[in-house]
Design a protein that fits this description.
Shape: globular
Number of helices: 6
CATH class: Alpha Beta
Helix content: 25-40%
Distance between the termini: 20 Å
Low-confidence stretches: none
Largest sheet: 6 strands, mixed
CATH topology: Rossmann fold
Strand order of the largest sheet: 6-7-8-3-9-10
C-alpha cells in the first residue's frame, strides 16, 4: 500500500477561517487552514473533538462556506459559488459517509441506494454499487435486518452510486466495533485503489491514521502536522 507519486490537486483549501456566532460570542472553528487534496489520494485528517474536523469536511463538501479564504475545486472557488452551484457540486462531485448511517428505515438496501441516483447525471447502477461493497445478496433487506457494518456498507454504496470524484467520510467507524471498523476501512481502501476515487477520512481515532499514505492533524482549528506515511499499515492490522 503505497502512495508516493505526486498528484495534481483535486481540491485546495486556502487560508480558510470559519467563525460561528454564538449569541454575542464569536467562535472560530477554523483558523487559517491550508490543505491540498490530490486527485486520487487517500487522506486521513485526525484531531480531537472540537478541533474543527467536521467544519473542514463541510467546507470540502460544499455544505458551508468559509468566513474568509477559499475552497477551490478544479479551478472553481466554492466560497463564491451560489446555493444552486453548491447543490450541483454536492450532487455531481461528492459522496458523503457519516458516523450514523442515515438509511431510510422503510426502504430496502437497494432502494436506499437508488434514492441517491435519482438526481445524478452519470450514476452507477445501484445493484452494481451494492455488489462493490459485497451486499448484492442483501439488496432486498431493510436496515433493521442488517448489522451495523452492513448498514455502513449500504451507506458507502449509496455514496458511490452517484459516481463522485471525492468521497468524504466523517468518523465512518465511530458507531462500529473494532473488528467491523477494520472491515469498513478495508473496504474504503479497496474502493479507493480499484476505482481511483479520492477518499478523505476524518476521525478522532489516531489508530486509523496508520492506514493512510498521508496524515493531516488538526488541533484548535489549525493544521499542526501534514506528514507522509512511508509504510501504511493494512486496515486489518490496526489496533484501536
Amino acid at each position: 500500500m503505497s502512495d508516493e507519486e505526486p498528484r495534481s490537486a483535486l481540491i485546495e483549501v486556502r487560508s480558510a477561517t470559519k467563525v460561528f456566532a454564538m449569541g454575542e460570542v464569536e467562535v472560530a472553528a477554523l483558523r487559517g487552514v491550508d490543505l491540498r487534496v490530490g486527485d486520487g489520494e487517500f487522506l486521513v485528517i485526525v484531531g480531537p473533538s472540537g478541533s474543527g474536523k467536521s467544519t473542514l469536511l463541510n467546507l470540502l463538501g460544499g455544505l458551508d462556506r468559509p468566513t474568509q479564504g477559499s475552497v477551490v475545486f478544479q479551478g472553481h472557488d466554492l466560497a463564491k459559488a451560489s446555493d444552486r452551484e453548491l447543490t450541483l457540486y454536492r450532487r455531481r462531485e461528492i459522496g458523503f459517509v457519516f458516523q450514523f448511517f442515515n438509511l431510510i428505515p422503510s426502504l430496502t438496501a437497494l432502494e436506499n441506494v437508488q434514492v441517491a441516483v435519482e438526481v445524478v447525471a452519470d450514476p452507477l447502477d445501484p445493484l452494481e454499487a451494492l455488489t462493490m461493497v459485497g451486499l448484492a445478496e442483501r439488496a432486498g433487506h431493510f436496515p433493521s435486518q442488517l448489522s451495523g457494518g452492513e448498514q455502513q456498507r449500504v451507506a458507502i454504496a449509496r455514496a458511490l452510486a452517484s459516481n463522485p470524484r471525492l468521497l468524504l467520510c466523517d468518523e465512518p467507524t465511530g458507531a462500529l466495533d473494532s473488528a467491523t471498523g477494520r472491515q469498513v476501512l478495508g473496504l474504503l481502501w479497496d474502493l479507493h485503489a480499484r476505482l481511483k476515487k479520492t477518499v478523505v477520512v476524518i476521525t478522532h481515532n489516531r489508530a486509523i491514521a496508520a492506514i493512510a499514505p498521508r496524515v493531516v492533524e488538526l488541533v484548535d482549528g489549525r493544521v499542526t502536522a501534514d506528514r507522509a506515511n512511508a509504510s501504511p499499515a493494512p486496515p486489518s492490522e490496526i489496533v484501536y
